[in-house]
Write a structure and sequence with these properties.
The chain starts with a strand and ends with a strand. It has two domains: 169 residues, Alpha-Beta Complex (Quinone Oxidoreductase, Chain A, domain 1); 138 residues, 3-Layer(aba) Sandwich (Rossmann fold). 28% of the residues lie in helices and 25% in strands. The protein is of the alpha/beta class. The protein is globular. The strands form three sheets. Strands 3, 4, 5, 6, 7, 14 and 15 form a seven-stranded mixed beta sheet that branches. Strands 10-9-8-11-12-13 form a six-stranded parallel beta sheet, with helices on both faces. Strands 1-2 form a two-stranded antiparallel sheet.
Length: 337
Amino acid sequence: MKAWLLKDFGLKNLHLEEVPTPVPQAGELLVKVGAVSLNYRDKAIVDGIYEPLKVPKPLIPVSDAAGVVVAIGQGVSRFKVGERVNSTLYSRWIDGPPGPDEPDYCFGSPLPGGLAEYMIIHEESAVRAPTMMSDVDAATLPIAALTAWYALMDIGNLQAGQTVLVQGTGGVSIFAAQIALAQGARVIVTSSSDANLARVQAMGVSAGINYKTHPDWEQKVLELTDGKGVDITIDVAGGNGLNQSVAATKVTGMITQVGFLNGQTTALNLMPLIFRQTTIRGIAVAPRSSFERMIPFFDQHQIKPVIDHVYAFDEAIKAYEHLTRGAFGKIVIKIAD
């Protein structure tokens, strides 16, 4: 089969090569990959800045895939040949709280990922792909959609009438806005692009804040919420901007920390955090059971992924370069028809 192999850190070391097609062992599915989507995690792995994992090389990267089962190993009972499935990031996290070693069993590093014509997925970590979505659409779900869902619904217990602050207009952020709006919440979005803010407001977002024009964007959030702050903040930036998220979130509100675009460390001012009694919850995607709860919600509310661009399999480098520039929604690589 053809597969993209990361031989060393840096995009120049990602090459399309011929490798043996894997053979499914007991409990495993051989999946013909229809499409994959890129996440910031995939870029961080290629760049060599994704901690704390030790990335094996060569590596078939990318965690998020959708495709069809073409062969099964001994004892498989959850799926049959011909069924469409999604990967999940954590191959062993099925339900409940995560174990301490879940990152050791992630697709796309350290386990082989989906940027190949075929991939192995254990039947216990696979999820039935939504029947109302193509592989291109379904491939966007395993990290971006599920992270937003878990943060807002499973952890945040979002209720209609509450207010959500979403940072940015990338994959997780757009899904968070879509889910919150479907749940009947009010949504405020920050971005450095007025054009992107106009696009999210056309989707139903009530207000957009350009954080370049308004560097003290937390003050604008407070103005928009009568000084109260939002119920839940989806923080994708990290870095020292976490202090602004604390200020923008209501007393006893929740910040779900899902990203680190502006840095993996922060100088956190403790007194505002203490006095506002803020909960900061790290979110590292979700278990399979959460994925299975999310799909009916997407079906019920007819939520369709927002895809910026679909690249061909041999254009993977261009897809990564696009991710580096930034995207409105998701970037997808189509592998098979």
